[in-house]
Specification:
carbohydrate metabolism, UDP_G4E, globular, alpha/beta, seven-stranded parallel sheet, Epimerase_deHydtase, NAD, UDP-galactose 4-epimerase, domain 1, Rossmann fold, binds uridine-5'-diphosphate-4-deoxy-4-fluoro-alpha-D-galactose, UDP-glucose 4-epimerase activity
């Protein structure tokens, strides 16, 4: 049996590939390399450059490699970009996911794991947010993912398909063994930005808003180590293969840190100061987004191993240094 990982050359997907290989799985990656990097894919996996909506390609791979499960990461993930170009997001995330599900169903793939997001909830819910909280996405990005969840639910009702949708909170960090990490240029994620600033890749960074209704006035997020996140997918795969039913589960630790606390952690772990400037709020940011992760813990038997902000930051910093070396070696 082989697992198809779409978007396996990207940040989370490339970690997933290592997680599966480490567990002895065979892996085929399909990635259009629009954001990912071929060098990020573990050499033991087969990388095919292509589109998840290419039915001939995907159907052929499923048959050729006896693929029994799809883990679908490929998609667009930048919230403001989705506001500026919603139709691109519905095309890339929703329409292509529809085609991929159809191809999987037609080729008798019974297990589907989907990369969803906390952005399906919207910002005004009760914290920590449970999976049955009201779904009211604030962006086309969130809606594009929520529609994919709905398609999966309906397809699983109608066909011999079971799925797990995992709603990610704030994913950060890098492979503790230094094999891959967050490599996208111009990334906007807080921990990545702070690490880049600490290492002098940016002259300064900004804190987007210091007047929120939180303990120190800055936004609170539930940062989850990418290694724990991909382990949740592997457990979901095991569970589906063992006949588990379809579920949707949050992936976060269940507690949050403020922007100031994250920056303090980067200073502490890096062992040096860097230029941080207080700025205005960033449009669309909720004051606090924290997961209730009981369901993932109970249903998947998920026991996070890197639930420690300093550890997340240490791995992110180590990868940022390694990326500097890799990029200068590549010229
Ligand atoms: N922030 C700063 N300065 C920066 C970058 C971020 O102050 O340079 C702040 C943001 O304003 C926010 C917090 O740090 O308060 C976290 O911001 P990120 O951009 O790292 O992450 P978001 O919480 O905005 O977004 C994440 C995912 C999205 C997903 C969303 C769902 O990246 O894909 O969570 O809640 F949609």
């Amino acid at each position: 049996m082989t697992v198809l990982v779409t978007g396996g050359a990207g940040y989370i997907g490339s970690h997933m590939v290592w997680e599966l290989l480490d567990a002895g799985e065979r892996v085929v990656v399909v990635d259009n390399l629009s954001k990912g990097f071929d060098w990020a894919v573990a050499p033991e996996a087969s990388l095919v450059k292509g589109d998840v909506a290419d039915t001939d390609l995907i159907g052929g791979l499923i048959r050729e490699h006896a693929i029994d499960a799809v883990i679908h990461f490929a998609g667009s993930i930048v919230v403001p970009e989705s506001v500026a170009d919603p139709l691109a997001y519905y095309q890339n995330n929703t329409c292509k996911t529809r085609t991929l599900i159809e191809t999987a169903v037609q080729a008798n793939v019974r297990n589907f794991i989907f990369s969803s997001t906390a952005a399906v909830y919207g910002g005004a819910g009760i914290e920590p947010v449970k999976e049955n909280a009201p779904l009211d996405p604030e962006s086309p990005y969130g809606r594009s993912k929520l529609m994919s969840e709905w398609m999966l639910r309906d397809a699983a009702e109608a066909h011999d398909l079971r799925y797990t949708a995992l709603r990610y909170f704030n994913v950060a960090g890098a492979d503790p063994n230094g094999r891959t990490g967050q490599s996208t240029p111009g990334a906007t994620h807080l921990i990545k930005v702070a690490c880049e600033t600490a290492l002098g890749k940016r002259p300064f960074m900004q804190v987007f808003g210091t007047d929120y209704q939180t303990a120190d006035g800055t936004c609170v997020r539930d940062y989850i180590h990418v290694s724990d996140l991909v382990r949740a997918h592997r457990l979901a795969l095991q569970r589906l293969r063992a006949g588990g039913d379809s579920i949707i589960a949050n992936c976060g630790y269940g507690h949050g840190y403020s922007v100031f606390e994250v920056i303090e952690a980067v200073r502490r772990v890096h062992g040096g100061d860097f230029d941080v400037r207080n700025g205005p709020r960033r449009p669309g940011d909720a004051a606090s987004v924290v997961a209730n992760s009981d369901l993932a813990r109970h249903e998947l038997g998920w026991a996070p191993q890197r639930d420690d902000l300093d550890l997340i930051v240490a791995d992110a910093l180590a990868w940022e240094r390694r990326l500097q070396t890799l990029n200068s070696a590549r010229g």
